[in-house]
């Protein structure tokens, strides 16, 4: 009986893990969106840094996660990863500006994200 419950617990855990995988990319993209808004509204370099770091972390997770709608077709994945890397690069540049105390310049740098988002969402969303 104990083995049965242990097996059932493992089965439930495994199925919940697989069930949440398709949502992970969407969740990471939502985190990216929220943190980008918070970074653009930051009133200090520290606040900007905290939000842009969370943004970059979510982007890194997104970069290695293939969209489920592609059904395992990896032909578009390198281009998708390249797009995410461009976003990470812009965020890193903005982060460096904020570290130098150039908060306004860092916020201005974030405007490049809008163009990248539009371009890559047309291609891969």
UniProtKB/TrEMBL annotation:
GO biological process terms, semicolon-separated: electron transport chain
Pfam families: Cytochrom_B562
Keyword set includes Signal: yes
Domain of life, source organism: Bacteria
One GO MF term attached to the UniProt entry: iron ion binding
Keyword Kinase: no
GO cellular component: periplasmic space
Signal peptide: 1-19
InterPro entries: Cyt_b562, Cyt_c/b562
Keyword terms: Signal
Family that this chain belongs to: Belongs to the cytochrome b562 family.
Name of the molecule in the record: Cytochrome B562
Taxonomic placement: Bacteria, Pseudomonadati, Pseudomonadota, Gammaproteobacteria, Pasteurellales
């Amino acid at each position: 009986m104990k083995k049965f419950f242990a097996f059932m617990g493992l089965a439930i855990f495994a199925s919940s893990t697989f069930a949440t995988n398709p949502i992970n990319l969407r969740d990471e993209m939502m985190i990216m969106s929220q943190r980008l808004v918070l970074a653009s509204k930051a009133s200090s370099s520290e606040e900007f840094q905290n939000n842009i770091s969370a943004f970059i972390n979510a982007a890194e997770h997104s970069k290695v996660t293939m969209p489920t709608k592609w059904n395992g077709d990896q032909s578009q994945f390198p281009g998708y990863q390249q797009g995410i890397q461009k976003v990470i690069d812009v965020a890193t540049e903005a982060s460096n500006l904020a570290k130098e105390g150039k908060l306004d310049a860092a916020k201005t740098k974030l405007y490049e994200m809008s163009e990248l988002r539009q371009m890559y969402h047309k291609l891969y969303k």
